[in-house]
Amino acid sequence: MPDGRLMEACQMSSKPRIVITGLGLTAPNGNSLAEFRANLLAGKARIAVIDVRHMGRHPAGVCDFDATKWQKRKEIRIGTRVGSISIYCSREALGDSGLDWDKVDKSRVGVYLGITEHGNVETENEIHNISQFGNDTKYWTHHHNPRTVANNPAGEVTMNMGITGPHYTIGAACAAGNAGLIQAAQMLQLGEVDIAFAGGVSESIHTFGIFAGFKNQGALGAHEDPTKASRPFDKNRNGIVISEGGAIYVLERLDDALARGARIIAEIAGWCINSDATDAVLPNPERQTECVRMALKRAGMKPQDIQIVSTHATATALGDIQECTALRAVFTDCPDTKINNTKSFIGHCMGAAGALELAGNLPSFDDGWVHPTINIDELDPECAMPGLVINQPVKVERVNAILNNSFGMLGINSALIVKKYGVA
User: Fold this and answer.
1) Catalytic-role residue among 118, 167, 206, 312
2) Segment 393-409, tens digit of pLDDT
3) Which of 259, 285, 303 is the last residue of a domain?
4) Is 312 annotated as catalytic?
């Protein structure tokens, strides 16, 4: 009699295969995959110094995309920053997918977006606004409630695109980008939708509360050169650089994608989400190890089958060490496995982090280049790992599978494996 895990793996293999057919993004260092990827391979970080209410000036990752490309100015004014990010990424993903949108049954389209938190920006802004008028709530905007409900980012997408299928956000802290993709894959396998827009989004730089929280935890990154403020694995790392951004994918069942002649970017091979159940902030490497191993089992893969591990590492003193401990436990004899990190370029995009970090590695399937972790001047010995790509990209013989790690507060862990389509 097979145990529960083996039975689960067998069940997963019998479900419809899920593929990625479109991708749209905005990041601090690019508003398209081509631009984003080029800057990753060139070692170009883009972190600015911004004024944070009540906090002074701090490094942050700021996106510079044209919201008016897909929204009217009135819609931008009434909506939210994260809504504009979501709409921009979804529309760009749609264009990339080649779908004939006019012929798509919009009731069979779902929107599943991962978020770290939502609504803080709008509430903080309104509290500040009424403080200028003796705290008289008649100056509190009537747009506050629809702006702050948790489903806002996904809901704004449905209104902009005329989608009448299900939409919701997945609150999964900084594991949210992976969680959005996993949720979409599951809904496609269940037959709930035929097309899914999925990924993660964040507007975190516009709330002072997150800056204050990390600063008071001793986890807010700083450097005289803001482009070097995010430095995972470096011995002198000192914390997180808060960033905004988004990456949204079009997901479909393989048979549907093939039937319409779609370009297949990658196939979703396996995943796992689990919980530490130990601490609100400090990661648990044992649970992270279990998460990665279960994702591999569900994908029917061994550690040696993974060519790129995209790390979550946020540049906090203990968080990086805990993840490296977890990875060393899994990838003990994997000479062809390379390990990298994207936050060193763009900071921590919170709910969008996992989705953006996956995006930056996907072109490796075609070009064989692995982008590095930058800003490592002196590697922390406790973060040393075989295969860690430091400061310069590395060309490899092949990339057939990528493991994307994303972990979050309250001990939520996610591991997502994607593979090159057509590779067994």
Assistant:
1) 312
2) 999 999 999 999 999 99
3) 259
4) yes
